[in-house]
Amino acid sequence: MVDTLTEIKEKTNNIILEPGKYKVVIYNDDKTPMEFVIAILMKIFHHSEVDAFDLTMKVHNDGKGLAGIYTYEIAEQKGMEATKLAQANEYPLVIKVEAE
Length: 100
Prior knowledge:
By secondary structure, this protein is of the alpha+beta class. Helix content is 41%, strand content 21%. The protein has three helices and three strands; from the N terminus they run E-H-H-E-H-E. Strands 2-1-3 form a three-stranded antiparallel beta sheet. Helix 1 (34-43) crosses helix 2. It starts with 20 loop residues before the first strand and ends with a strand.
């Protein structure tokens, strides 16, 4: 009996995909004070005071503005945190997480 050595080569393709990105969008309303929106942008989204003011003006003038782009989990967390803070202060601020 002859021993035959069989070599099996397996080729694996490891494709690593970057996690999807999601936008956190703030929508304008007539009841939430601009100072509150600026505070949320600074506290939760870590914008500077100048950037938070500029973004708040964009929300006010255009109807919506981009607070940030994050992975899904972070976008959801920041969106929920901002929404809960608005609700706790009885403001109807709408914040949505949207796929990029």
